[in-house]
Amino acid sequence: MFSPTNWQRIDLRKLDRAQTLERMAKEVGGVATAFRVMGGLLLLFLACGALFVAALIVPKLIGAGCQIQGMPGGADDPFTGIEFATATRDATFTLVFPDGQTMIAGTGMWICSIVICLRASRMLRAIVQTKRPFDGGRVRDLMEIGQLLMFQGLVLPIAGSALTWALLRIIQYQGNLELSIIGPYQGCSIIVGLVLMAIARIFEYGCILQDQDDRLL
Fold first, then answer.
1. Beta bridge partner(s), residue 139
2. pTM for the complete prediction?
3. CA distance 206 to 135
């Protein structure tokens, strides 16, 4: 696997084209596998969470009757979150977390993370198979992954907050409400998305150099 110390011990000028491509394929293949495993684990956790809510939480909320209320907290806490809960709180479902993030946005961001991991894994596997990092298909992959990160960090939080606000108004919730749109995670997602979209444009020039190199060979 890639590490800075590995590259410090290697004189890249002594590596020929075949050795460089082989080394790239080996290390990129490991990262592709890591993304695939990560995406699979995220999908598994999402499925388990959905089954838990559908099988255990929702029947209790429907059977015993539920109400929407603020989550318990200290007297000095200005906002503690909003939840659906039974009278005895033996079953609860969080709608808005104490930090103002919404369940709708959180679920959407989780799904988007799965798509990003699987898309990144597919892109890296294609590089391993073709040994062509500078390719029109890879440019599109990078651009779309960057756009997904932008969507995850910007659009989903806004949409989740708007839908949650509308739902609370429809059911006439009168309690304290604080919604957070952009947090540290969303900010990082936006920054990484912009960087990947910029790199995709750089890869477009790399495609021209790759084509010229192939013609010379």
1. none
2. 0.83
3. 8
